Structure formats: structure tokens, C-alpha cells
Amino acid sequence: MPRQDWSRRLPRKLLVAGVISLSTLADVRELLDRHLPPEFKHKAFWRHVAGEHEKAAAGETESIAAALRMVLSLEGATCVVR
Predict the structure, then answer these.
(1) What is the pLDDT of residues 12-64, one digit of tens each?
(2) Span 72-78, mean pLDDT?
(3) Contacts of residue 53, Cβ cutoff 8 Å, sequence gap at least 6
(4) In whole angstroms, what is the distance from residue 18 CA to residue 44 CA?
(5) Could you give the C-alpha distances from 52 to 7, 47, 55, in angstroms and in order?
(6) pTM of the predicted model, to two decimals?
(7) How far apart are CA 47 and CA 11, in angstroms?
(8) Strand-pair partners of 79
(9) pLDDT tens-digit profile of 48-59?
(10) What does pLDDT average to over the chain?
(11) DSSP code, position 70
């Protein structure tokens, strides 16, 4: 099994307005750990994002990027893809 690499880059940078700029898996971890309100962490789709985040650390980042864009859209967050 490949080692976990939190410096892996996302396919495209995601800018979450007023919150954070996501360009690596470490940035996604910061979003999940520091910026996501505790009540959101229990929602099924945020648990899915957390699971994809763990998988991406040892593989491809396409799935985590897609999951993030979808969940942020569902939450009504303004997110710009760069």
C-alpha cells in the first residue's frame, strides 16, 4: 500500500469564499478539522468527503475534488475552481 502523502495536489485549486483556499490534501484536512462546524461532521456527505480524503492520501485526488465540489454546492458555499 502506498504511503499517505498529504502534500498531494488537488487537480484544480478550490477557493471557498471567506473560508479557505484548497490546493493540497493538507488544505482539505484543515477544512475538515478546523473550519467545518461540529454538527456538519456528522452529516453523511461530509463523512463521505472524509473517507475520500483518506483514500486520496494514498492514491488519486480526483474523487476527493469531485466530492468536495458537490458537498460545498449542496451546502450553498461559494466555491470557485481555478
Answers:
(1) 999 999 899 999 999 999 999 999 999 999 999 999 999 999 999 888 899 99
(2) 91
(3) 25, 28, 29, 32, 64
(4) 24
(5) 15, 9, 5
(6) 0.90
(7) 21
(8) 16
(9) 999 999 999 888
(10) 91
(11) H
Sorted by where each begins, the domain ranges of the chain are 9-81
Whole-angstrom distance, CA of residue 72 vs CA of residue 78: 8
C-alpha to C-alpha distance for 41 and 25, rounded to whole angstroms: 17
Residues in the chain: 82
Q: Which three cell numbers stand for residue 62?
A: 480526483
The three three-digit cell numbers of residue 56, written as one number = 486520496
**Residue 69: phi, psi to the nearest 5?**
-60, -40
Helix locations, 1-82, DSSP H = 25-30, 38-41, 44-56, 62-74
